[in-house]
């Protein structure tokens, strides 16, 4: 059964958004483009319409790198940090004693979909708050390069566990160290304001939309969504300035970043922090993963 390809048809999980004439591709399946097979009649022309050399390259173009960036052990200034509230410690610096790796970008829709499909995860959370919204987001392949949202604490932990040994959700102190660096930068990239294309947009953008916003080490994608950490939100013990982990329990999880969702440059500060209900799924909250280094 040859089907006319209109604006949206899926091949290998890719949505061809430009019209692909039926002489170039032949589908077998239903009217929604969900099908059992597809035959590329002129794959070279399909690839050319996307400005790439092959159909496989189209698949690559729909994803971003899941590269992990090495963050070397070190310290960052207490000055400028909000971790301790009004109880400033005697120490002048906060120490991260071990190397770790941090995702170059927040976890994307495409990456989270891979986990969900492999683990049958949507069936496990069916009926929960935000599950329908997450399902809808994951079904939209045009969002593949955007950060995944509508995920709560359990979802984030499950994804990190699925990624493999050594993966975890970073602590707030690790996140801040990666964003501010040893010198205690005001913004992830430096101390002078650079307006991101998604600033105050109130919607998500592809995670690689603002390469100028990357840290010197290469961590990027800050500010598109608030990013959840593994730390409960409250003031830290001022005596614990080496690998501080914050409170052992609480009603809120610490979140970072989020300049796309506010009208204040302060939301983009590397030290900016807020709290959110750990069990609630929201359209503005994503995350990135960290990984312990082998030593």
Provide a descriptive summary of the structure in words:
The chain is an alpha+beta fold and 295 residues long. It folds into 2 domains: 10-61, no CATH class; 68-292, paralog of FGE (formylglycine-generating enzyme), CATH 3.90.1580. It is built from 7 helices and 14 strands. The protein has helices spanning 43-49, 55-61, 109-119, 121-125, 131-138, 153-163, 172-180; strands spanning 10-11, 14-15, 25-29, 35-40, 68-71, 74-77, 93-96, 100-103, 167-168, 226-232, 253-257, 273-276, 285-287, 290-292. The strands form 5 sheets. Strands 5-8-14-9 form a 4-stranded antiparallel beta sheet. It is globular and about 50 Å long. The model is unreliable at 1-42 and 49-60 (pLDDT under 50).
Keywords:
2 domains; 7 helices; four-stranded mixed beta sheet; disordered N terminus; paralog of FGE (formylglycine-generating enzyme); globular; 295 residues; alpha+beta
The CATH architecture of the largest domain can be named as: Alpha-Beta Complex
First and last CA, distance: 57 Å
Gyration radius from CA atoms, angstroms: 21 Å
Looking at the structure, the CATH topology of the largest domain is paralog of FGE (formylglycine-generating enzyme)
How many independent structural domains?
A: 2
Would you tell me the structural class of the helices and strands?
alpha+beta
Mean pLDDT: 83
User: How many strands, which pairing sense, and closed or not: the largest β-sheet?
Assistant: 4 strands, antiparallel
């Amino acid at each position: 059964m040859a089907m006319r390809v209109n604006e949206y048809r899926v091949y290998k999980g890719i949505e061809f958004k430009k019209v692909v004439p039926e002489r170039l591709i032949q589908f077998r399946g239903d009217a929604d483009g969900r099908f059992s097979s597809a035959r590329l009649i002129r794959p070279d022309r399909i690839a050319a319409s996307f400005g790439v050399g092959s159909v496989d390259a189209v698949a690559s173009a729909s994803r971003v790198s899941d590269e992990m960036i090495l963050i070397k052990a070190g310290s960052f200034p207490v000055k400028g940090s909000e971790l301790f509230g009004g109880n400033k410690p005697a120490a002048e610096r906060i120490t991260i004693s071990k190397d770790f790796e941090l995702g170059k970008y927040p976890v994307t829709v495409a990456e989270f979909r891979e986990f969900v499909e492999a683990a049958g995860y949507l069936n496990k959370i069916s009926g929960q708050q935000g599950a329908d919204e997450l399902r809808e987001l994951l079904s939209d392949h045009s969002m593949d390069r955007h950060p995944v949202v509508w995920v709560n604490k359990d979802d984030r932990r499950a994804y990190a566990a699925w990624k493999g040994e050594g993966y975890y959700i970073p602590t707030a102190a690790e996140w801040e160290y990666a964003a501010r660096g040893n010198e205690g930068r005001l913004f992830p990239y430096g101390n002078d304001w650079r307006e991101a294309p998604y600033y105050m947009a109130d919607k998500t953008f592809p995670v690689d939309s603002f390469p100028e916003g990357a840290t010197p080490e290469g961590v990027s994608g800050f500010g598109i969504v608030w990013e959840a950490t593994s730390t409960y939100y409250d003031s830290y013990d001022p005596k614990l300035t080496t690998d501080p982990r914050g409170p052992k329990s609480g009603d809120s999880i610490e979140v970072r970043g989020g300049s796309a969702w506010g009208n204040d440059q302060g939301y983009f500060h590397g030290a900016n922090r807020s709290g959110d209900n750990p069990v609630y799924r929201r359209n503005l909250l994503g995350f990135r993963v960290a990984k312990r280094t082998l030593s």
